[in-house]
User: Fold this.
Amino acid sequence: MNGPSTNRAAAYPTWLPMPACTVHAVAGPPGPHLRQFVQTHCRPGAAIIDLDEIIERLSQGRPGAWAAPALEERNRRLADLAKAPADEEVWLITLSPRQWQRDWWATHLNARVHLVDPGKPAAMAAAVAAGLNVRFVHSWYEDYADPDGWRIPPVRDTRERHLTGRAPGARPPASARGYGTNHGTMRTKLLARQPWCQRCEAEGRGRVPATDLNHIKPFRRPDGSFDGKLFGDPANHEALCKTCHNAHGARTDRDASPLGSGGDGRPLDPNHPWNRR
Ligand SMILES: [Zn+2]
Assistant:
């Protein structure tokens, strides 16, 4: 019953209603730094939704298949956020190594996404110190290096959707608003019609193969929230090479964010170790 497809639908549920409160999603390799990041950035009284913590509480250390019931509880708590007071602040701890997974929380929960990546050597060392299996850290970095991987789209779990429904008056799902297109698909379409870096061409560097989709206007609003229209609008997409994308991405992130980092918590400097790929 809890086969991989069920777990996949539960891990990235499409049926969640839009939260009524502020949600932050913290993504990164497994380890104590995720919770530490939340504790240093959340305001007092903020709720933390952490799958590992739920598993620990449910299992009481007993071995077993705790992921499915824990995901169910996590999703129930995420669904309840549709009825939360608007001034509530909630932090979701998630691994989400792939870009599309981090975009998922931005699209489906209107979450501000923070990528907390201490770098592989530090994450490995922290895992060893915390008694975690370093295999999970290793595979996080493998997935991180392959942002569009795991291409089978998550399965819609109609059973859970039927049980939970949408809160009355909740916004329609992101997919119905036309914003559900994942980043990888948009990039593939763009690069098919625009295979050369548009900036290199415009600035006289000739034809350099484009590898990246750049959002011309940043899809992060100044307050860090997610603008789904700018994210999905092909007119706001530009094909760039890695070099131009890094230069442009840093600039627009800075314009969009009053903080010293981009909307996802990354430092703006493309040469910062967190930004190395
Ligand atoms: Zn270029």
Observations:
- The first strand starts at residue 22 and ends at 27.
- Residues 1-5, 151-170, 174-180, 253-277 have pLDDT under 50 and may be disordered.
- Residues 183-275 form one domain.
- The chain has twelve helices and six strands.
